[in-house]
Amino acid sequence: MASEQRGRTAPWAKTLGAVLLALLTVTVTYYAVGAHRADQRKAAALKGTREDAQRFVDDVLARDGGFPTTRRQMDEVYATAVGRTGAWLYYLRFDGAGARVLARFSRSYEPFPHLFGSGDTKVSRCFTIDFPSRTADPTQVRITAHEPDESCEDVAADKPESNGA
């Protein structure tokens, strides 16, 4: 009887092992490539938040009626530049010459793997934007991107001058 032979592997077991090994290899490769692409999409979304911040700066400087002088005017420019869904104006301080803005910009990206639901994930980043003067050249405006895991609340708490809006 073939089933009582010792030291030899049955041909069907070798075939099954090869098929399972191939399936495991394909699965691991699929997840590795998918995770890499998700990281690329996340990086692109973070880059997009920087582009949103720059668009906001450009809109503030090109605003009809001049530089915004009230929070409401700044909110209007902010909403026009990036929309309410992807941004939040946390802090605004006007001084004699210019203004300091602390704002959050968000972008959605598609993570990996999609287990349940639509699969969209949002990445947010806080920016400190310093307008040195109300007639500043866009190259004079300083845009500071904070770390993606650092919330605007934490950034505002670290800045003693940001206690008023």
Verbal overview:
Strand 1 and strand 2 form a beta hairpin. This protein has 165 residues and is of the alpha+beta class. Helices cover 42% and strands 21% of the residues. The protein contains 3 helices and 4 strands, in the order ααββββα. It has one domain. Helix 1 (11-61) packs across helix 2 (71-82). It has a 4-stranded antiparallel beta sheet, sandwiched between helices. The N and C termini lie far apart (88 Å).
Rg (CA only): 26 Å
Spans of 5+ residues with little confidence (pLDDT < 50)? none
The helix-strand sequence is: HHEEEEH
N-to-C span? 88 Å
Summarize the biggest pleated sheet: 4 strands, antiparallel
Global outline? rod-shaped
Query: How confident is the prediction overall: mean pLDDT?
Result: 81
Number of strands: 4
Structural class: alpha+beta
